Amino acid sequence: MSDTTYPAARVSFWERLDRPDSAALFGLISGAVWFAIGVIYGLTMSNELTTPDIFAGIPQLVFSRLRPAHVNMMLFGFLSTAFYGAWYFIVPRLCKTPLRSNRAANILLILWNLTIAVGTIALMNGDTQGKEYTEYPWYIDWPVEILLIVNAVIIFQTIAARVEPKLYVSLWYIGGSVIWIALMYCIGSVMWHPFTTYLGSDGHTHILWSNNASSLPAGVSNFQRTGAVTGLDDAVWNWFYGHNVFGLYITTGGIAITYYLVPKLTRRPLYSHLMSLIGFWAIALLYTNTGQHHLLQAPIPNWLKIVSIIGSISLFIPVFAFSTNLFMTMRGQWGQMLENTPLRFVLTGAFFYLAASFQGTIQSFMAVNRFVHFTQWTVAHAHLALLGAFGFIASGATLYMVPQIVRKPIWSRNFADVQYWLMLVGINGFFWALTAAGLAQASAWVTLGEQVTKAYPVVKPYFFLRSAFGGMIVVGVWMQLINVIQTVRQPAPRKDMDRYLSLSDLHEFAAPAGILDDPPVR
Q1: DSSP string of 298-326?
Q2: Total domain count for the chain?
């Protein structure tokens, strides 16, 4: 049978959606796009801290609207979408069966991107529930929840159809992540209670579904869409979700990618499969107790505070298991970081994860928490975890998987290397500038007794550093987007160049089909 090449124009839309790895490619590129947009939002907000009137008169660009738009864009736009793409790449290879199905996954990603875009517009227009990490209004919560459930169905249908009899550890982490986030998002958004209050004809705000308002008054249409319960109960449930969305979704999802990529890129078996499962069950059992360490200065029960502190300290178990397992896998092979750019990103992210976890445990102590909470210290910690740890892991996955899918070498290794150093220097400078700002704030408040507003001159110089180092991150992230798009657009290499590319120092970017497609050795 002759090999006939059909013009791209003759390939139908549905056929494109059915192509192997098309959903993985779509997710990874979409994540890179959201990453590039999200850091622009972050840099804009950073500049507003030093020049507050830069966008005066434009309500959509005030800090209080950009902040939730930026946070949710990075959480659900960048990290979630990039992770979906990476999972759609990993799961079929570990199961030795096609994704069930690429068409469904592509449609999910189209709807997911549309939902995040509409949610971002809503937040910039002031339509928000006003709760940490659950700011999306109720009409965004429902499609997000439905798509999270569909994503879990796609993942587990593929696992159920696997040919490989054993479950590699990455499948454990991915399977746990997709279930936990679907449950937690419903709880965090209080989806069974979307309307909390209403404005009565008397001009006063009334509470819905309270003991005195068991039924909805006639003619009421002006609801406050907060998706909340009342009082401290709402704070406790909010931080149950707010912390676990990172620990049982972003963390576990990023660990799954790391456990796949490190053995793959180093061509070495994972040091201990048993240790990886100990880490999985430890994080599953211990992480749920930690969220209330954000409320140590609130009047919640003391036993709940103690449980959260003990849970935070206990997280050393899964973190130590993961770090030891990974670094023992790399023993004697650390020199590969010099040549293998995706590996460098992933391992740097693992180092940042270890540092962020250690810092998180320390700041859960009552004395430390009383001093640094509500300062820029916590902002630095959040960026170290999300951008430093899992942002680097997602970037490494993107730079490795996109060339693998399109069977082309990376467009520019120099771009990838410069991106790495810009992001590395940027996040380190960003982190230490905000950490110093947080300590200066805390000292002014606690030691000198200054009012919150009067401490601003103390931290303003650090905000200038924040913008400078943040600008470096922005440049690096946009270089990644250009690199990935150009990799997809460039012509495929000639067949007589395949062997050269597979043997060159770009092998991690350009290995031919089959070389790197087997599951890592257990």
Answers
A1: SSS-HHHHHHHHHHHHHTHHHHHHHHHHH
A2: 2
C-alpha angle 93-283-83 in degrees, rounded to nearest 5: 40
What are the angstrom distances between the C-alpha of 421 and each of 65, 406, 425? 31, 26, 6
| Span 286-331, pLDDT tens digits | 998 888 888 898 899 999 999 999 999 999 999 999 999 999 999 9
Does 184 fall in a domain? no
Eight-state DSSP code of residue 512: P
- Is 511 domain-assigned? no
User: Rounded to whole angstroms, how far apart are CA atoms 193 and 395?
Assistant: 37
User: Among candidates 432, 427, 312, 316, which has minimal Cα distance to 369?
Assistant: 312
Helices 102-124 & 22-50, crossing angle to 10 degrees?
20
Single out the residue in 166, 199, 228 at which a domain terminates: 166
Locus of tokens 């440049």? 475
- Residue 83: domain span: 23-166
Backbone angles phi, psi at 274, to 5 degrees: -60, -45
Query: What's the rounded Cα separation, in Å, for the pair 177 and 89?
Result: 16
Give the DSSP H/E element, type plus range, for residue 205: strand 205-207
Is 429 contained in some domain? yes
Q: Which residue numbers in the chain have pLDDT < 50?
A: 1-8, 210-214, 496, 499-500, 502-522
Query: Last residue of some domain: 132, 166, 200?
Result: 166
Q: What pLDDT sits at residue 297?
A: 87
Residue 345, in any domain of the structure: no
Q: What is the C-alpha separation between 504 and 444, in angstroms, rounded?
A: 56
Here the tokens at position 459 are 């931290």
- Measured in residues, the chain has a length of 522
Residue 154: CATH number of its domain: 1.20.120
Instruction: Name the pTM for this structure.
Output: 0.89
**Cis bond upstream, residue 101 (ω within 30):** yes
Cα separations (Å) of 513 from 85, 92, 95, 340, 403? 19, 15, 17, 19, 11
What three-state secondary structure class fits 363?
A: coil
